């Protein structure tokens, strides 16, 4: 007990030239529950994928029991005794629970037949040990997500691992199941296992973890003893970065600006009871951790997903938005977070994509008026400074920043007054970022209103006039830009349902 | 991945123990039971409406129509379980039969050896499909479509567009036919078909290859991350399909004697229709050899039975088409509900 079993030092990893990890480290003792913390994109999942053999590292060392190890694939890591329970469950829905548990490790009868009776028996023993009430002969796909996760956890434990990584294990568990999980984890601790626990839920960290390692922007920041640190300290480590661009000093929105959009008690999927107002000429930032529900709010508002209940008022009048068509008719445009999948038809040209939302604008009878379309597209290419040889260029050949501008052009040509930008500068280089920011400022100066969803805190602080923070499907806080700071935003972003501000 | 924290899913939060009856239904599979009952219903329907239908000769006709489609369908079940499709089984059936027949007729090789070689050829074509899909990552529809066209042309090339007639029962080399029709007219072919179906059902459900094929069809990435070599097992599915297509070629030759190059197109659709009707999902991950056989029998029974109630063969196509659409709709609705 208490000796170091795992050391990751100076790990580096880049994807297609873009660095994801640089000098990332983690030290794990046996019999310890060690939390790994960081914002979205801090590199936690990447680091763990390297540890468990899913990715290959570019640099750094991993020492397991003092020996340097290299894992080329997950099987090698598994055999060495390092296992991960993924956030996105990895299971075969059509097979039974027991078959999932023992895939790749089946018990054989006479060497050629799989002995389902034996694996069912072993599964029952395992479940009994862990005090889980699941029938091993049940089809995996028939279980609730929470129970599927319990099976995943049981699978990881059953491989006689010495290190288990839990990636957001309680996200889909009920309170009762979470208590069960913690019992299991404490039991594993006492048996000398090392556990890495990735989670944003601060209250859980206090309950179950011994130490906390914080990562930021792909780097190791520091390690604290849980019992001796406060939430504020941890948050400071998570966000405390030298911000190069100055945050916005004060709001540009005049105090008497009218409310253009009002959302009241919106419920959709796991989004519960979200209300907010959007003023004319305002950039309203939506902050929160990934999975907080911001995109879901946007999609429900835009009619892309069904709304269960709630009201939407545009210019003070109640409106019904059931489909994106309704939303567009009311002047709302949505730039989705995944422009290649939801924003562009990548094989089509700049011209075709720009006119996608406004095909009826230039018609001659039933035919599309191509020359007028081309002229309008050219106008916007100039206005937005889209770098493309011509409007007949296929958008797949453009850089990320220019592709994003094409999407913006699409909504401008449609003449939308309310624009929802979902992660507007994701995957875009620094130069193009500034151009998009300048564009956004131009738009609001002309009287448009913008909702900007972003996971990048510096971006939120630079662009927003007001910030709304969401956590786990609920709105947890609102800050004016004058009072906002990275720490305050992160505090609200990690608030759980039962906690108060 | 967003999870609905307030979702009210149907399984009870308490124990997941089920009643014995429900368990039996789950282990056999609801769709198989429905298909079996449908088969009985169709058979009873024809028997009631046509006296002539109720004879052993008719039964033998149904069997005869089932052999080659049945073997193809058993083989392609494995491919469909992986989530892919094999469009080449029809022409591979004919091509391998032509190769075997030509080796016997033109080169005088013993028929047993010829049949063995034609099976090897089937396995080889299956391997080609496997390499294209699992290693080169071509979509299975396109890859097997290519093989279908290649083998169709190859058959004509090898036989110089001549038909091949296999040795008849009374010939010296006609002993292979006894696997399908004994000298006293007993349809031994059905025994062979059922026996192989049982073997393949065991392979699918009770051996590692079958387990891994089901697993990779359900979630290929999860299976890979669990340390299973999915490339190897996916290729095996295509090899099995090719091998059984060759077996179907032998069955075809034994039943119809003359094999013509340029044919075979369309057999695969009959086989695949049988597989889908029998409950194997085109989405992959779930499937049954028994179900496939039942699906094939339904189609053969329709084919043989409809003329007895004075409906022409084109009605058979029409009705089979409707049955197929119903089966696929049920399959898709099932998958959608699971998600």
Could you give a short description of this structure?
The complex is a heterodimer of chains A (501) and B (339). Chain A is α/β, with parallel strands linked by helices. Chain A has a six-stranded mixed β-sheet with strand order 6-9-10-3-11-12, with helices on both faces. Chain A has a six-stranded mixed β-sheet with strand order 18-21-22-15-23-24, with helices on both faces. A four-stranded antiparallel β-sheet of chain A has the order 2-1-4-5, covered by helices on one side.
Task: Write a structural description.
- The complex is a heterodimer of chains A (501) and B (339).
- Chain A is α/β, with parallel strands linked by helices and 501 residues long.
- Chain A has three domains: 4-239, Rossmann fold; 255-331 and 416-425 and 449-501, P-loop containing nucleotide triphosphate hydrolases (Rossmann fold, 3-Layer(aba) Sandwich); 335-415, no CATH class.
- Chain A has 17 helices and 24 strands.
- In chain A, a hairpin with a 2-residue loop joins strand 16 and strand 17.
- In chain A, helix 8 (231-239) crosses helix 17.
- The relative contact order of chain A is 0.11.
- The longest helix of chain B has 27 residues, at 230-256.
- Chain B has helices at residues 20-28, 30-49, 56-81, 89-107, 111-135, 140-159, 188-206, 208-218, 220-225, 230-256, 267-277, 289-305, 313-338; strands spanning 164-165, 258-259.
- Chain B has a two-stranded antiparallel ribbon.
- Chain B is 70% helix and 1% strand.
- Chain B has 339 residues and is mainly alpha-helical.
- Chain B is globular.
- Chain B has one domain: ABC transporter involved in vitamin B12 uptake, BtuC (Orthogonal Bundle), CATH 1.10.3470.
- In chain B, helix 3 (56-81) packs antiparallel against helix 10.
- Chain B starts with 19 loop residues before the first helix and ends with a helix.
- Classes of the chains: A alpha/beta (501), B mainly alpha (339).
- Chain A binds chain B through residues 54, 73-75, 78, 87-88, 90-95, 99, 103-104, 106, 108, 112-114, 116, 133-135, 137-139, 141-145, 147, 171-172, 174, 269-270, 272, 291, 293, 296, 472-473, and chain B through 1-7, 9, 11, 13-18, 23, 26, 202, 206-208, 211-212, 214-215, 217-219, 221-223, 225-228, 285-286, 338.
């Amino acid at each position: 007990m208490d000796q170091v079993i795992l050391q990751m030092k100076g790990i580096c990893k880049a994807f297609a030239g873009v660095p994801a990890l640089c000098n990332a480290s983690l030290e794990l003792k046996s019999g310890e529950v060690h939390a790994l913390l960081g914002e979205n994109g801090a590199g936690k999942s990447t680091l763990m994928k390297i540890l468990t053999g899913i990715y290959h590292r570019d640099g750094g060392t991993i020492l397991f029991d003092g020996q340097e190890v290299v894992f080329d694939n997950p099987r090698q890591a598994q055999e060495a005794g390092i296992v991960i329970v993924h956030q996105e469950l990895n299971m075969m829905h059509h097979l039974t629970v027991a078959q999932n548990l023992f895939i790749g490790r089946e018990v054989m009868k006479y060497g050629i037949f799989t002995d389902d009776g034996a694996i069912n028996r072993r599964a029952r023993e395992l479940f009994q040990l862990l005090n889980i009430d699941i029938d091993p002969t049940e089809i995996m796909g028939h279980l609730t997500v929470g129970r599927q996760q319990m099976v995943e956890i049981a699978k990881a434990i059953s491989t006689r691992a010495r290190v288990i990584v839990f990636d957001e294990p309680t996200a889909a568990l009920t309170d009762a199941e979470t208590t069960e999980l913690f019992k299991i984890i404490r039991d594993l601790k006492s048996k000398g296992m090392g556990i890495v626990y990735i989670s944003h839920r601060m209250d859980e960290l206090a309950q179950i973890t011994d130490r906390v390692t914080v990562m930021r922007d792909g780097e190791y920041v520091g390690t604290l003893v849980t019992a001796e640190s406060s939430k504020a300290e941890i948050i400071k480590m998570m966000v405390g970065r030298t911000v190069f661009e100055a945050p916005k000093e004060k709001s540009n929105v005049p105090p008497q600006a009218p409310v253009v959009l009002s959302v009241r008690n919106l419920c959709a999927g796991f989004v519960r009871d979200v209300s907010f107002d959007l003023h004319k000429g305002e950039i309203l930032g939506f902050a929160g951790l990934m999975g907080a529900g911001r995109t879901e709010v946007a999609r429900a508002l835009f009619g892309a997903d069904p709304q269960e209940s709630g009201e939407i008022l545009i210019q003070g009048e109640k409106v019904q938005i059931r489909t994106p068509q309704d939303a567009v008719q009311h002047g709302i445009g949505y730039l989705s977070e995944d422009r290649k999948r939801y924003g562009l038809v990548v094989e089509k040209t700049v011209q075709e994509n720009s006119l996608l939302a406004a095909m009826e604008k230039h018609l001659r009878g039933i035919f599309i008026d191509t020359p007028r379309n081309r002229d309008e597209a050219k106008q916007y290419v100039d206005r937005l400074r889209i770098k493309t040889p011509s409007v007949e260029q296929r958008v797949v050949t453009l850089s990320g920043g220019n592709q994003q501008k094409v999407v913006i052009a699409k909504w401008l040509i449609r003449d939308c007054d309310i624009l929802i930008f979902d992660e507007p500068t994701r995957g875009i280089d620094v130069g193009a970022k500034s151009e998009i920011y300048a564009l956004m400022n131009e738009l609001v100066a002309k009287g448009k209103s913008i909702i900007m969803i972003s996971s990048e805190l510096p971006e939120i602080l630079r662009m927003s006039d007001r910030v709304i923070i969401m956590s786990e499907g609920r709105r947890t806080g609102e800050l004016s830009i004058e009072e906002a700071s990275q720490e305050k935003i992160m505090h609200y972003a990690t608030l759980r349902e039962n906690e108060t501000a | 991945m967003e999870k609905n924290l307030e979702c009210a899913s149907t399984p009870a939060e308490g124990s997941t123990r089920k009643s014995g009856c429900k368990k039996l239904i789950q282990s056999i599979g609801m769709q198989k039971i429905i298909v079996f009952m449908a088969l009985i219903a169709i058979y009873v329907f024809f028997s009631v409406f046509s006296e002539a239908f109720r004879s052993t000769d008719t039964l033998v006709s149904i069997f005869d129509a089932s052999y080659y489609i049945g073997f193809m369908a058993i083989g392609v079940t494995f491919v469909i379980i992986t989530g892919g499709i094999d469009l080449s089984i029809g022409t591979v059936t004919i091509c391998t039969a032509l190769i075997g027949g030509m080796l016997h007729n033109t080169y005088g090789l013993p028929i047993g050896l010829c049949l063995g070689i034609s099976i090897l050829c089937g396995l080889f074509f299956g391997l080609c499909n496997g390499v294209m899909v699992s290693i080169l990552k071509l979509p299975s529809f396109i890859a097997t479509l290519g093989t279908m066209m290649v083998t169709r042309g190859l058959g004509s090339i090898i036989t110089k567009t001549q038909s091949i007639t296999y040795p008849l029962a009374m010939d010296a080399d006609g002993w292979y036919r006894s696997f399908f029709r004994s000298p006293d007219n007993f349809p031994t072919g059905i025994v062979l078909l059922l026996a192989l179906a049982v073997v393949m059902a065991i392979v699918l459900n009770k051996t590692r290859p079958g387990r891994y094929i089901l697993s990779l069809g359900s979630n290929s990435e999860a299976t890979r991350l669990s340390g299973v070599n999915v490339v190897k097992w996916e290729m095996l599915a295509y090899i099995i399909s090719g091998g059984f297509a060759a077996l179907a070629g032998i069955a075809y030759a034994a039943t119809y004697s003359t094999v013509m190059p340029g044919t075979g197109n369309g057999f695969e659709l009959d086989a695949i229709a049988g597989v889908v009707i029998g409950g194997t999902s085109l989405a992959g991950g779930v499937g049954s050899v028994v179900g496939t056989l039942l699906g094939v029998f339904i189609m053969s029974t329709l084919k043989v039975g409809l003329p007895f109630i004075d409906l022409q063969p084109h009605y058979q196509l029409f009705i089979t088409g409707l049955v197929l659409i119903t089966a696929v709709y049920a399959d898709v609705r099932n998958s959608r509900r699971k998600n």
